[in-house]
Design goal:
Elements: E1 8-9, E2 14-15, H1 24-29, H2 46-51, H3 66-77, H4 97-106, H5 130-141, H6 152-164, H7 170-182, H8 184-197, H9 199-212, H10 231-242, H11 247-256, H12 265-274, H13 290-310, H14 329-340, E3 342-345, E4 363-365, H15 380-396, H16 402-420, E5 431-432, E6 434-437, E7 444-447, E8 455-459, H17 481-488, H18 496-509, H19 530-542, H20 547-555, H21 568-573, E9 586-587, H22 590-600, H23 613-617, E10 621-623, E11 626-628, H24 634-640, E12 657-659, E13 673-675, H25 751-754, H26 774-782, H27 784-800, H28 804-816, H29 822-834, H30 839-850, H31 853-856, E14 857-858
Antiparallel strand pairs: 1-2, 3-6, 4-5, 4-13, 7-8, 9-14, 10-11, 12-13
Helix pairs in contact: 6-8, 7-8, 9-10, 11-12, 11-17, 13-14, 15-16, 18-19, 18-20, 27-28, 27-30, 28-29, 28-30, 29-30
Length: about 850
Amino acid sequence: MKECYGCHSDRTGKIRGGLRLDTRQLLLIGGESGSAVVPGQPAESLLFTAMNHDGLVMPPKRKLSKQVIDDFREWIEMGAPDPRESAAALVKSTVSKADVRRAQESFWAYQPIKETQPPKVDREDWPKTDVDRFVLARLEEAELKPSEDDEPYRILRRLSFDLVGLPPSLTQIEKFSHMWADDPDAAISKVVDHYLKQPQFGERWGRHWLDVARYGESTGHAVNLTYPFAYRYRDYVIDAFNADKPYNEFVQEQIAGDLLPAADDETWAEQLVATSFLAIGPKNINDMDSLKFRSDLIDEQVDVTSRVFLGMSLACARCHDHKFDAIPQSDYYAMSGFFESTNTFYGSQKASTNPMVQQDSGILEYPVDAPSPGQKIYTQAELSDLKDNIATLRSELGQGSRFVGIQKRIYIGQLENELAGLDENGRPISFCMGVQCSASPGDATLLYRGEVDQRGDVIPRGFPSVLSTRPARIDKQTSGRRQLAEWIASDQNPLTARVMVNRVWHFMVGQGIIASPSDFGATGQPPSHPELLDFLTARFIESNWSVKSLVRDIATSRLYRQRTDMNEEAYEFDPTNSLLWRGHPRRLDAESIRDNMLAVSGQLDLKPPHGSEIANAGFVRIRNGVLEEISNGVGDMAGRMGGGGMGGGGMGPSGRLQRGGPGDGAGPGTRTQARGPGNGMRPGGDNMGQNGGGGMGRGEIQRGGMQRGGRASAGGRGNSDAGDVPPGRLDMVDANFRSVYLPQARNETPRSLDVFDFADSNAIVGRRETSNTADQALYLLNNPFVLRQSKAFATRIADEAATPTQQIKLAFRLAYARLPQTSELRTAKALLADFNGTEKGLELLCQSLLASAEFRYVY
């Protein structure tokens, strides 16, 4: 106190370097340079090194005596005991109430949605919709002109890929051409309505959502374990877009579906699966520190909720006040309290002696009978054998070497997983990922610098202060997620609808009205057409938050028809095309390139697979693109034990039955059951507790009118042009279903998607990058999938057209939705002639079309 308080205490009013020494907690927190004292570690304690004048110098004018310094060393080595009152005050925020109020009043994103009217324009013959009037008004203001309408075949191709992610069929090309000749507006309107009704619409637009939801079927990180039930969330999203589920309901279900009322088990199941949104993120399950793991899990949930729905980077305030936006650190912890009061069930496996898996989780019992692929039905004899095998192995524990003992424990854990996934009759129990309320909900504690061992004051749960003028009304007996979901999805929230409207605009036009789709803050881009954004947002809400209505408004606009040709004068004034003086030429995304190849070759299977390849495998580890057992040696032991029912990797979670959290008035009863390994299972250190209960409903589930389950996913399992594909590989070059159903393991993206900039499932991807690399050219030249599609394309052409000229024309129609130009026809005929009309020449022609820029781009 004598030497240090003069510069480092609230008592003297001097806080140099951000260091306050008034309490033990503040001493441990330290200042701008870091923690002042690390108990037990003098060499790591900045206060001690400063006393020695080693780098930092304290006191600045003279060095303390050796005796005092030695006493401090001994004190730190003892653990730095401190009799002073240790309750720390909040770190003084750099974001004042005045800063928050200023942002509320002036920053564009936080303003209420304005009801704007379409502006008047000079050129009345150009607009087809109100959207066009807003765009044209900006162009006229800049003395620019819109581009002319594109060719009909290009418009059709653009619509087809944007709405369903597939090329138009020959029949659609022919019909559209005739309709366009009669009435272009009616032709576009009719084809848009047709595509909006197709189940492929949900697959296309569901994939857009999976990008921002960071959908993945494994944990990622060094120990990459599968999420066998993640596919249920994928199917939920696809069905939601097909059914045109109101977006505000879609939002609420993903944040608090387990807490919303439900009329029946099918609705309850759908809402429960929706909460997988909070559970499917990447997780470092090898983290030795359970508190840090829990903190990181909550941080990831805060981040995805705030950025995906609100366009706010709240997670930037985890360790300190936001550097650019009016978001104090307390706002982050007010939001994290909702998730601190939530248990997350992501369904990874933990074998008790396996050193790889430090953080585990239970799994939720699905409210309807819908087993995943890979789950087998056991006869009573097989069920008895399974139990006997477990008992035999347990009796043998302690025999043999330590390594054999570890193997046995791991194998016992896998057998118990298998048993836990069966009912008393040997039927597989259905499971899903998701969240539930904690047994003991409460507020979060502010962590200084985000460090779990530097705890500050408790922060009441609430909403970002810049968006709320009064304290949130949270039911303290629950997690409060339902209130959070209702606030986010409210008509009065200025961000939620704006963010989604901008996302839809981005996917339809090629560039958002706000170019940073997940950042509506100070570091994001301002809107290029703010009045248009609010006009579309108000209309979106009025249309019952209908995504399909919004897509239709954009697709039928004159803006959407514009050519993509360059205009030097306009380019000089507006090089980024933010004023939309032309259409944006766009490369197809990775899925559309692959699906396009399958479609034109005649190989595409539009029937959705049941589950996914990862669901087939169950709880396994992924390494080098291969699904494998969690531990080597387990398979040999299984053979010695006579199998033990380990087929499919073991779909059931281990451990005893536990119950989900309080219902918040949710659903018909509180029927969700949580199963977790061991006694008192906790995800990342959070005690699950046992709440609620009740019987589990059984029966068929149909979502969005589209029944899945026609067949188990397959592919990558047999012979192909690539030779034998080993079992368990995730590349699946033989699979012919749509790309959205390919395995989405983290860090193990199938080659056909990865090479064309597929979304990183470890991140929230609101806008994919588009690269042009030599690797892509090599892929198109040499990859077995491309070669197989080229061959199938050639076979189709040979079967459906007789002469070389007819074959070339058909190939161009399928690949480009147009006939070849004279020069193209001449060159293609010469190529076929060089190979004397053999199949090889046709294969090379087809491969050249598949590898061309026009095939991969929409213009």
